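Before a computer can learn anything about folding, someone has to put a protein's shape into writing. The three-dimensional part falls to structure tokens, numbers that each stand for a local backbone shape. The protein below has been through that process, and both of its lines are reproduced in full.
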Amino acid sequence: MNPRPAPAAPHDSGPPAPHDSGLRADGFPADAVRDRARHGTAALFPPGEAYGRTLFGAARPPAHPAGADLLDGLRLVPPVFMPRRLEKLIDLAREPMHHDVELTTTIGALGSPLPAYLSAFGSTQVASADLGTAASRQAGRLGIPMVIGENVIPVNGYGRLGTPPSGDTGRSLLGRIHAYLDELPDGTGGVAVQQSTEDADAEVWNLVYSDPSARPLLDSGRLAFELKVGQGAKPGLGGMTVLDHAAAARVAGQYAVDDVLGGDGRVLRCSSPGTFTEEILRQQIRLMRNNFPRARVWVKLHPGRDVREAAGVAWAAGADAVTVDGAEGGTGWAPLGFLDGVGLPLGECLRRIGPPAGALLVSGRMWEGTRAAKALALGATAVGLGRAALLAVEEDPEEGLVRLVEALALELRLLISAVGKYRADALAHEDVWAAGTGSGTPAAPLAAPLGTQP
């Protein structure tokens, strides 16, 4: 392992550093993410140059602040007796190691080399600048699925997939797909195109589905459409972006525009979140399946109190995957009151959902292996990298996300093998423990039976 400098000091709440594009990082370990983007797998360990000269662990601060969500309060707990390790030993005719862990995962009918995907980030200035295109390229190189968020077409245009993107055209919806496909290996990955209620006016799905240049995605089963019901950063609200007066005037007929930002030449553009009942959601999914039979169907839910029922309706209606965005999730513009006090934390969403009836994709402060492994143990199929991905790409537009994901993959292999298992989908409730649960079945208090939600 190559020596590396010690990680930077924790991110404070002061002004962004000169290289910072303004990504919200309050409560998020931005510097740790950047450390992984710079140093990759080396960032999983103490500085190599200190080995043999320093005692580690004695003065280590708490891993998570007081009052953190349920996921942060859990610990992964390896057993003493490991019958699956014995099975693997017999199969390999040698002692198994962490590199024998199989991470390959099917994510909403899309293949991936590990249980992770690139979460949606849409049309905000940070996401739609070069960071969005760079993230697409690196996600394609990694072979992980990628979600393209809402409002990209109204803000950045549709583009032409058959023409190499340049300048602003690289920020278009098809410009991002083009960047992704240029790097994507055969037989893995895929693109999920998100559409919100107001995105439907731009006929996003119709445009992509009927585009001859998108046929390779359809023919290989690697195109999905995601219905956006809500978002973790602002559950119950629609999309929000900040525009100058000229841009606001152009979209005033389609969106609500409010001059509430202090009169400095900027205005707030708001989208409708859409209205859903069980029957409306059921019919929306049926329409998607009927109108786009060759595309996979995903549904994105915000962290609402009835998230279990909503996920159940989506799976029963035929959704290939349900995405749950915890209150920690979200890279876009949102009122500060929502960021601080609205919506369920991701861990509570997982507790309420219990054993999922289909593919469950989750996002919300995902950037490292322990939180990801605990989410997988509580029923998630895969985890989404949103803010962490943008921070990594901002740190290094060519390799930052690649290094971050390589570090995540190694950490997952180490953690999964430590509990005596050798597949990502083998993680289960038995592998986690919550402080204060006492003796007995470690994970029993974490699963909420139907009808017993608080």
Notes: The two ends are 48 Å apart (CA to CA). Residues 28 and 365 are 7 Å apart (CA to CA). The first helix runs from residue 30 to 39. The chain is about 35% helix and 15% strand.
